[in-house]
Amino acid sequence: MGAMSEILHIVGGGMAGSEAAWQAASAGVRVIIHEMRPHVGTFAHKTGDLAEMVCSNSFRSDDDEQNAVGLLHWEMRAAGGLLMEMADRHKLPAGGALAVDREAFAAGVTERLRAHPLVEISGEEITELPREGHWIVATGPLTSGALAEAIRAETGTESLAFFDAIAPIVYADTIDMSVAWEQSRYDKGETEAEQKAYINCPMTRDEYEAFIDALLAADKAEFHEGETAGYFDGCLPIEVMAERGRETLRHGPMKPRGLTNAHKPDEKAHAVVQLRRDNALGTLYNIVGFQTKMKYGAQTEVFRMIPGLEQASFARLGGIHRNTFLNSPTLLDGEMRLKSRPNIRFAGQVTGVEGYVESAAMGLLAARLAVAEMRGEALPAVPSTTAMGALVTHITGGADAKTFQPMNVNFGLFPPVDGLKGGRRGRKDRYKAYTDRAKADWQAWLGAAARDAA
Description:
The chain is of the alpha+beta class. It has 13 helices and 17 strands.
């Protein structure tokens, strides 16, 4: 199949933009990725690579039978997703999760897209919403100020915003392994490397209470005048969690369940801080769930109170940034097009999905919809019974526009399966039924889409 003469322009080379470019180019469409980095930087990005991971190196659970994000992994693999291919190629031991060497992953994505004959990468910053041509805006949570203002002017609404906080990264050789030990929760994983994918730092009750006191008293980053801190619950700073109650962290990222201290197997820790490998060399570990808005000096003081991290050196401290997203249920149609400018689709976190995988999935879908439109075809609606369909249904009308907030994929977005009992006891059978149905429906949709394109 020859390349189409028309061009699909993609603004943003993050997760959504990279996946969208791959899907379109694989379908024979010429693509230009407009990525302003590294010419115009952001607070969170460190390189000019495409698909750079800034908050975490985890794609979360890879369980495609009992977990909604694992199901989304499966659907993206079935659709020939580039990001899942690169994640699988550069994965690190992480128990039941899919974690990657972030630098190798981004370099791999960048190399594949640069090598594709139908993909061009432009370094210009797009500051306006174009009136002509086929466009996908996938600028993510760090949309540049000029483009964000253009979106606000077009939609006639104030962009909604919450704040994303980034977890710190520790040099592995500065962790005291006479105190800490390697173990995944409940020894999860099929290999020894997976069963020992996390480093665990135990706390007694007194150590935990002192840690909470220090956390609450620490200097925090100030907000600019007029900004309000509306946090996404899946990415709460640890100080905000602590402010909700002294036991909150112990029942959240610091829960001790499923872990046995290798040095003191008879002692049950009151709380445990986990660190997850951040690169293939195993030289860097990020502190799991420890997104923070503490000032840098306070971070080093507070985090060195953690047993095993008293002498820790940090490759990166935590940070905080504004995360902007559309009120998509009111602004986008069912094919992810801006209602007032149907030549423009939006994809990724800017649409109100949360997470690397969800962002990439919306890029995949936006590209397939754009390609079909460019060919004068109409794809069947994506079944809402699939993870992909559940997400796009949520952002394009399934959610209440008045209370719309960023959302990870979850089984609560799926239509119920008739005849299955609710509650925790029936959860395993119910989730398996959801994923079995989704896989069949997704394969059928991919087959129908392929027939329409033939």
